[in-house]
Amino acid sequence: MEPAGRPARRAVLTGGLAAAAATAAAVLSGCSSASSPKAVTAAPPEPPSTPKAAYDRLMAGNERWVSGELEHPDRDPERRELVAQAQNPYGVVLSCIDSRVAPELIFDTGLGDLYVLRTGGQAVGPVVTGSVEYGPMTGGTPLVMVLGHQRCGAIEAAYKAMKEGRALPGNLQAIAKALQPAYEETAKSPGKDPVDTMTRNQIRITADSLRANADLGPLVKKGSLAVVGAYYWLDTGRVEVLSGAPS
Questions:
Q1: Among 4, 72, 194, 240, whose Cα sits 20 to 30 Å from the Cα of 179?
Q2: Mean pLDDT along residues 175-179
Q3: Number of other residues whose CB lies within 10 A of the CB of residue 119
């Protein structure tokens, strides 16, 4: 046993070795930082400026979603800082509120890429239509997509209520009222799956209405805007284009 008041020899050696190791690690870390250049973040690609280019980028993202080969673009701190002061989205997507149909995910996009509006069954009214018009009319956004989907609960509820002649509770009735034109078309020719038929009718009616309205119509006519109607398959993740694909 060592005399009282003097550190044990083993403790001294252990402490010395630990201090030396820490010093060496700090030196090596400093050398590594000094010799390794800072990673350079590649500049993001310019947003598409034509309907065809915007459509192609959007659909390429959906192909990545289907295959699982995702790039998760525009989702890092650098992108957040880049778009903090200004944005220039290349598309507008009007889709359903369904939790399984998130446009930013199914098109593999990120911050500043899309304007996204979501209502039950893609129901529209003046506020929704004005929100769709915002990008094309104020910033030249070249693409609008109306995106319905397989097994839409909002459309199923509206279809059953209207068929049975009853109102939905609360403000859900406002959704049913907005979907009435699609229901009336479906009642004429319901097909094997009336809910799916009504979903596709709602996509078509909404896309046609946006394509021909007083504000977006002239942009479509001169070729600076495309309004696409599309249907999302929950089972596969694939977006099926029904109308309006730019060539």
A1: 240
A2: 98
A3: 18
Q: CA torsion angle for 119, 123, 129, 135 (degrees, to 10)?
A: 40
How far, in Å, CA of 73 to CA of 56, rounded?
15
pLDDT score recorded for residue 8: 43
| pLDDT at position 43 over 60 | no
C-alpha–C-alpha distance, residues 120 and 155, integer Å: 8
Task: Give the mean pLDDT of 182-190.
Answer: 98
Instruction: Quote the crossing angle between the two packed helices 194-212 and 180-188, to the nearest 10°.
Output: 120
Cα torsion 44, 50, 52, 58 to 10°: value is: 40
**Dist. CA 164–CA 92, nearest whole Å:** 35
Query: What kind and span of H or E run contains 38?
Result: none
Q: Which residue has the tokens 């799956």?
A: 193
Could you count the other beta carbons within 10 Å of the beta carbon of residue 187? 14
Q: Tens of pLDDT along 84-105? A: 999 999 999 999 999 999 999 9
What percent of the chain is helix, strand and coil (3-state, nearest 5)? 50, 10, 40
The DSSP output letter for 236 is T
Q: What is the CA radius of gyration of the chain?
A: 28
- pLDDT of 44 reads 57
- Do 68 and 27 meet the contact criterion of CB atoms below 8 Å apart? no
pTM (2 d.p.): 0.82
Three-class secondary structure of residue 115 per DSSP: strand
